[in-house]
Write a structure and sequence with these properties.
Keywords: Hydrolase, Protease
Organism: Paraglaciecola chathamensis
GO molecular function, one term: peptidase activity
GO biological process, one term: proteolysis
Protein name: ATP-dependent protease
Strand order of the largest sheet: 1-3-4-5-6
Distance between the termini: 41 Å
Oligomer: single chain
Shape: globular
Radius of gyration: 17 Å
Structural class: alpha+beta
């Protein structure tokens, strides 16, 4: 079991994914300072709109451990950071600290294993098209890994305009082939 400070968001990040964040709440400033000082990172989790916040059910159970790879003071005086996903975890329990920071007792998730017989060529090509169309996404990845099928699937799960519940369902099922089939149907 590992203990991770949690940063709930409406968006999600997966392993090898990158995300730019603006940090302004004191609890998250404390979390980022500690993560940088100790080089330990923190967990990013998706918000559950149907969950009870008082009982910490407003955070979905699958999250991703991230590390800060860059930071800067933004023009508006806020702290800007770029994080990169490391590995996924499942939250077993959440406690709330004195300043409102949620901390999870977590276990690492199994890593998907791509299957060579799975045809992900269309999914790969559509992701390349998105990177070419949206420079703000492309700029996050100086060395995109389009030849890595797992990297491609993870980027799609981050970008998909589907509900947090659907993304959680796809990540929990742990079936890479079904996820590729789902993505292929979406991008046709």
């Amino acid at each position: 079991m590992i203990t991770l400070p949690l940063f709930p968001l409406s968006a999600h990040i997966l392993p090898q994914g990158r995300m730019a964040l603006r940090i302004f709440e004191p609890r998250y400033v404390r979390m980022v300072k500690n993560a940088c000082a100790t080089q330990t990172g923190f967990g990013v989790c998706m918000l559950n709109a149907k969950g009870d916040k008082e009982r910490n059910e407003h955070i979905h159970v699958v999250g991703t451990h991230v590390k800060v790879i860059d930071f800067d003071m933004l023009d508006d005086g806020l702290l800007g950071i770029t994080v990169e996903g490391d590995k996924c975890f499942n939250i077993e329990q959440v406690v709330t600290e004195h300043d409102g920071l949620r901390v999870g007792q977590c276990i690492w998730s199994e890593v998907w294993q791509p299957e060579s017989k799975t045809d992900s060529a269309l999914v790969r090509q559509r992701l390349i098209d998105i990177f070419n169309k949206y420079p703000e996404i492309k700029d996050l990845y100086p060395e995109p890994r389009f030849d890595d099928p797992l990297w491609v699937v993870y980027r799609w799960l981050e970008l998909l305009p589907v509900s947090a519940e659907k993304k959680q369902q796809l990540m929990i099922q742990r079936d890479y082939v079904k996820t590729v089939e789902y993505l292929t149907q979406l991008v046709k």
